[in-house]
Amino acid sequence: MARIGFYLKILEFLEILLLLPLIIKVTSYSYKRMTAEPTFLNTPRNVTVHMNELAQLQCRIKNLGPKQVAWRKVSMDWPLTVGIVTFDPKEDISVSYKDLKKQEEGLTQWDLIIKHAKPRHTGMYECQISAKNVYTHYVYLKVIDTPLVVNPAIAMYGSQFINLHEPIKLVCNATGGTRAPSLIDWFFNGHMIRGRDPRWKSRLRINDYVPDVPGRMLVSELTIDYSIFEDKGKYVCRSFAMNNFYTTSLDISVLNKKEHGKRADTKKYSSTTDENPNSGYSANPSTSLLALTSVTLFILLR
Q1: Which residues are registered as beta bridge partners of 246?
Q2: What angle do CA 148, 149, 150 make, to 5 degrees?
Q3: What is the DSSP string of 207-246?
Q4: I need a labelling partner for 12 at 20 to 30 A (CA). Which of 28, 131, 213, 215 fits?
Q5: Nearest one of 265, 276, 164 to 224, comparing CA atoms
């Protein structure tokens, strides 16, 4: 028993020796992360927006570690934000935080967002890192005192050819003049699409949202689960902006999977033959190699 215990201790010691390089590597990496100097990445230093637009002041930092990030307007004595906490609830200000380690290890984003910017927001802002040494990134914001007028527009995106029983997914982007359109309606073959209609019941989903940037667009996503042949037809999305209606349409075809597969095979074959229109025979590399090997063996064995 004593001998077994002795061998077990030797095994434990060997395991520690094997894990020691990994422990040293992880410890060294953690130490480097903690002691590395934070740096600001190059982002726009001058931002210009029109009144009532959304202003986004970018601040990307590498090797922030446990330090805090604060945004402050240089002309003020108090911070606007620390971390993601906002100190002035009257202002429509927030921080957009993102961990960008998928792009680069140790990279984070701390953008200052000012919704419905006003001329009084014009000025120099600083993105500051709270540490032993002061690290500061300056961004100048200019807010033009007239609203930006954009002509309303509408566009629809989606696949026109759908296999039977696969979902139909359509996206409608509608842009207003000075702000996002108030609504988007969907139509199918001239009839408004309504969730309570038995035709669409338990198959229909419509999701509307307004992106933060640029703030004048309304996006509507229409999804019809488990498509049937009767879903074939003209789909129309309609927006209302600046006291006018704007429409766009898309024709959707629902295909039988077998027929669609045959069409795809034929098309693939045609494109292959078109690549070599003057060639009546395409040699197989493996067949050629086998023939060459057989000839060589025949010559050597003679």
Answers
A1: 239
A2: 115
A3: EEE--SSSSSEEEEEEEESS--GGG-EEEEEEEEETTEEE
A4: 28
A5: 164
Measure Cα distances from 6 to 18, 77, 164, 185, 298 in Å.
19, 68, 69, 79, 66
* Cα–Cα distance for residue pair 254/160, rounded to 1 Å: 8
State yes or no: cis peptide before 214, omega within 30 of 0: yes
Work out the mean pLDDT of the chain and round it to a whole number. 80
User: CB-based burial of residue 102 (10 Å sphere; 0-12 exposed, 13-18 middle, 19+ buried)?
Assistant: exposed
pLDDT tens digits, one per residue of 69-87: 999 999 998 999 999 999 8
Domain that holds residue 176: 153-255
- CATH code, domain carrying 130: 2.60.40.10
Residues 6+ apart with CB under 8 A from 178: 52, 147, 148, 149, 150, 216
Q: Which amino acid is at 287?
A: T
Segment 156-180 shows an average pLDDT of: 92
Under 8 Å CB-to-CB from 181, ≥6 apart: which residues?
152, 174, 175, 218, 239, 240, 241, 246
| 108 plus 191 within the same structural domain | no
